[in-house]
């Protein structure tokens, strides 16, 4: 049951990410979508917006928020690899 909810949330996040990537930013209120994404725990969407703004410290914060406890994730951007745990 929990796995189904996790899959559903991941699918909703993927759909939102696909949507914001496809639409021009002047077609929606970017700040509102960012706040909604943060509130929903859609950290990949949050990362996308902060990457667009070149706000890399917030990209890293969003990436760390998206890492399940006890796991390790690599974030690669602009040729730099950063180990997050």
Tell me the layout of helices and strands.
Layout: H1 2-22, H2 30-40, H3 43-52, H4 56-65, E1 73-77, E2 80-84
Helix pairs in contact: 1-3, 2-3, 3-4
Q: Could you describe the 3D structure shown?
A:
The chain has one domain (about 1-85). The protein contains four helices and two strands; from the N terminus they run H-H-H-H-E-E. The model is unreliable at about 80-85 (pLDDT under 50). A hairpin with a 2-residue loop joins strand 1 and strand 2 (about 80-85). With about 80 residues, the protein is mainly alpha-helical. It has a two-stranded antiparallel ribbon with strand order 1-2. Helix content is about 60%, strand content about 10%. Helix 1 (about 1-20) runs parallel beside helix 3 (about 45-50) and helix 2 runs antiparallel to helix 3 (about 45-50). It has helices spanning about 1-20, 30-40, 45-50, 55-65; strands at about 75, 80-85.
Q: Proportion of β residues?
A: 5-15%
Number of strands: 2
- As a whole number of angstroms, the C-alpha radius of gyration is 14 Å
Structural domain tally: 1
- Rough outline: globular
**Biggest pleated sheet:** 2 strands, antiparallel
Strand numbers in spatial order across the main sheet: 1-2
How widely separated are the two ends? 27 Å
Low-pLDDT windows of residues: 78-85
Task: Please identify the structural class as seen in this structure.
Answer: mainly alpha
Q: Please provide the ordered H/E string of secondary-structure elements.
A: HHHHEE
Average pLDDT number: 80
- Number of helical runs? 4
Q: Approximately how much helix is present in the residues?
A: 55-70%
